[in-house]
Amino acid sequence: MLHLCMNCKEPFLLMQFSKQQIATAIALAFHISGVIAIGIFRSPLFISLTPLNLLVCAVLILWTQEKINAGFLGFCTAAFLLGFGSEWVGVNTAIIFGEYTYGDLLGPKWQGVPYLIGIQWMVVIYCAGISMAMLHEKLVKKQQAADQELPKGWVALSMIADAALIALLFDWIMEPVAMDLGYWTWTKGEVPWLNYATWWGVSALIMVFFHFLPFKKHNLFAVHLLMMQGMFFLLLRTIGA
To answer: For residue 81, which of 126, 128, 119, 123 has the smallest C-alpha distance?
Structure first.
């Protein structure tokens, strides 16, 4: 919003930005510079800064989330534990995702799994969940305006399944780039279909906590971040092809 200072000898414009706008600008700067440095110049420095980028995104989510309450903290905890736990089972048993190992780019690990991967799960599920929750809110209002009330059970099921599908689409876009940059390596050199099936299942399970735990599910920055991250990996995937 722009304000004109009427009490000054020389009028000037004072720009006031919202948290959403500031967070979006910061995330956009990180992702644009990342595409240029990694995609074009293949900068080892920028590739090594992946943990910083992920942590900045997580902090911006916390900053822009309206009213951090017990429900929100419960979701973050569940997302981290279920995401990290599923990766631990995947890496150490090869049962649920397939055979793969993590490299060193994502930072410190516990029994082969980077701690940051739990944060990555939280960020992806939160952004996918917020995006679908905001879309569902509009659709439900349209149904109510047309006197077509939908059963709450179907709304919940649709919300969880659709948001998990968005998370799965994000993983599909990210996988080739993540392997190319050395985030993780699949033993057989290609991503098994089991990985995608399990990714949807784990995402849906975490989304249950997202949907039913009470906290504010309206954050435009999360929608922007999901689009930025998706475009980031899609551009790197295209450039690297």
So the answer is: 119
